[in-house]
Each structure stands twice: as structure tokens, then as C-alpha cells.
Design brief:
The protein is of the alpha+beta class. The chain has a single domain, classed as Sandwich (Jelly Rolls). The protein has eight helices and 13 strands. The strands form three sheets. It has a seven-stranded antiparallel sheet. It has a four-stranded antiparallel sheet with strand order 6-12-8-10, with no helix packed on it. It starts with 14 loop residues before the first strand and ends in a 6-residue tail after the last helix. The C terminus is likely disordered.
């Protein structure tokens, strides 16, 4: 097992330590992409970047149609990779969509997002997790503050902070329909969380995360370092939010009439493949943390409108 640079869940008290990995891995071999130097600098400083209208309205319409088809197919499925809202039968997430042998598999290879991930991570990339998220109007539940890396490190064995999340916004994100909230600069610090990891923690944490979350004092300290700023990822459909794997983020509930949905891919450096979980427990299922047949993505130049006519309809 690799050296555990970020120990967590091994005591009663939280600890805050400095990040030990670069944020942007600049590599001339992977400099060709949609992000300019000022974009990379902003990502390095804040831990996230919202790229407005990376996909046009026609492409968003296709994505919405495919998302609805996927939601309809999974509506009555009782499976671990289909997550329902706490207390209801409403779908919250459907995982591992990049293996659907159709539209979302192609979308995961789209060069606009793959090349951006390569620019940030300085290497070829693969997808370690994918899902569609849906937060319905009036009853979409909140999701508490957390760093994805803390979970991926402890429960999946991701050795280093060298992954980036890509959230493609499919519905206009307003201040009031439960958009993602992020603490700028929080990716520069690692919060070692108290407690231990329950067995098969994922079965409850995907609905309500209670393990591996920061304590109130640590969260307050991170916000203080950001001069009290908490940003909200608001923007029009077709925009893409790239955020660093250790950026502290969460979302409030959605009591507005307007649903919020997105497609979510986690790009990991091919040089940062998952190992044994640092929690010492069994690895989480494949649909949460891909380990099998890992190959670097070859970016696809096709526009989505062109590909939509050729996909295999299941």
C-alpha cells in the first residue's frame, strides 16, 4: 500500500493539515484544451471553475432527453446503483452511467471535458465514478459539507489528490434551487475527520453522509480562510463546473418549484489508480469506484448532435 499522506477517521478529534499534492499538474504534452492559463490559475487558487455554456442548447436538449430516458428506465429498479431520496421513492442518483454503451459513454469521452481534465491533471485520465443527479423541486434533500477526496482516499484507496470532478449542468442553476456550494481555497487543506468508518458505509452515506464530514470548528476555520466566502455554482444549462477532488462542498435542500439535474463524471489521473482502501476495509463496489479494465480515455471530437443519431437504443 502507498504511504498514507492523509490519515483520517482514526481518532476522536478533527485535525487540519496542509495539502501535500499539486493542484494543477502543468504538462506541455496535455496543454491543448479549452482552459486558458487564467482559468488554470483560477482553478489553482479557488479549487473550482465554472465554464459557462460549454455545451450549446441543442446539446443540452439531447442530454436532458437521455437523462429522462435513464431516469424512466431506473424508476422502478431496486438496485444499489440507484439511489432514492430519503423517505421517498424519488430518484436522487443513478451511478456508472459511462458504461451504458450508448449516449453517456460517448459523453464521457467528449474532448471538451476530457481535455480540460487532462490540462488540470497533466496526464491521461480515466473515469473512476459517474452518475446523473436529480434534485426535484419542493422536496430535494440537502447534502452536508464534505471533501470527496476524504471518502475516496479512505473508502476507495485513491492515493493522491489528483482527480477532478466534472458536473455538466442540465437545468439552470439558481440561488434558490439547491445549487452546489463551495468554499474557495478549501482544497489547500485536508480535514482529518474524527470517528471510524462503519461497515458498508456507502449504503447510507449516498443518501445522507454522516461519516467523513468536517466538524463545525474545522468548517468555520475553512470559511474564515476564505474571508467568509461561500460560492454557489449558479449558471445556465450547458455550463460545466470543474472542481478539485478536495474542495469542500455541499448543497442545501430544494424547496423551490424548479428541479436541478446534472451529469457528473470524476476524472482521475491514470497515474493515480485506486489501491487498497486506507480505512483497512473492503473496497466499495465497482459502480462507485472503478478498478476493472482501466484504460486511458481517447477524447472524442464528435459534437453530441452528430453522435445522437448513431447511438444504439436499448
Amino acid at each position: 500500500m502507498a504511504v498514507n499522506k492523509y490519515p483520517s477517521r482514526n481518532g476522536r478529534e478533527a485535525k487540519i493539515m496542509e495539502r501535500k499534492d499539486p493542484v494543477v499538474h502543468r504538462n506541455p504534452e496535455f496543454s491543448d484544451g479549452p482552459l486558458r492559463e487564467k482559468d488554470l490559475n483560477s482553478f489553482e487558487e479557488n479549487g473550482y471553475l465554472l465554464f459557462e455554456k460549454l455545451f450549446n442548447d441543442d446539446e443540452v436538449s439531447i442530454m436532458k432527453s437521455e437523462l429522462q430516458r435513464t431516469m424512466d428506465y431506473n424508476k422502478e429498479r431496486d438496485a444499489d446503483d440507484v439511489i432514492k431520496e430519503p423517505g421517498s421513492n424519488e430518484i436522487r442518483s443513478v451511478f456508472e452511467i459511462h458504461k451504458d454503451s450508448g449516449f453517456f459513454q460517448a459523453l464521457a469521452k467528449n474532448e471538451r471535458i476530457v481535455k480540460a481534465a487532462q490540462q488540470i491533471l497533466g496526464s491521461q485520465v480515466y473515469i473512476t465514478q459517474s452518475r446523473i443527479n436529480f434534485k426535484p423541486g419542493f422536496k430535494g434533500k440537502e447534502f452536508y459539507w464534505h471533501s470527496d477526496f476524504e471518502t475516496w482516499h479512505q473508502e476507495d484507496g485513491m492515493p493522491d489528490m489528483r482527480a477532478v470532478s466534472c458536473s455538466i449542468i442540465l437545468t439552470d442553476n439558481y440561488e434558490f434551487n439547491g445549487p452546489l456550494m463551495l468554499v474557495p481555497g478549501s482544497h489547500k487543506w485536508f480535514v482529518s475527520c474524527p470517528g471510524a468508518t462503519p461497515e458498508q458505509n456507502y449504503k447510507s452515506s449516498l443518501k445522507k453522509q454522516e461519516t467523513g464530514v468536517p466538524d463545525n470548528d474545522s468548517m468555520s476555520w475553512l470559511v474564515d480562510q476564505a474571508d467568509g466566502r461561500i460560492d454557489r455554482a449558479t449558471g445556465p444549462a450547458g455550463s460545466v463546473l470543474f472542481f478539485e477532488c478536495n474542495t469542500m462542498h455541499g448543497s442545501a435542500g430544494n424547496i423551490s418549484p424548479y428541479p436541478r439535474s446534472n451529469v457528473f463524471f470524476v476524472f482521475n489521473s491514470i497515474e493515480n489508480k485506486l489501491q487498497e482502501p486506507f480505512s483497512g476495509q473492503d473496497a466499495r463496489p465497482e459502480f462507485l469506484a472503478n478498478r476493472e479494465n482501466i484504460q486511458p480515455i481517447q477524447p472524442n471530437k464528435d459534437r453530441l448532435q452528430n453522435f445522437s443519431h448513431r447511438i444504439k437504443r436499448n
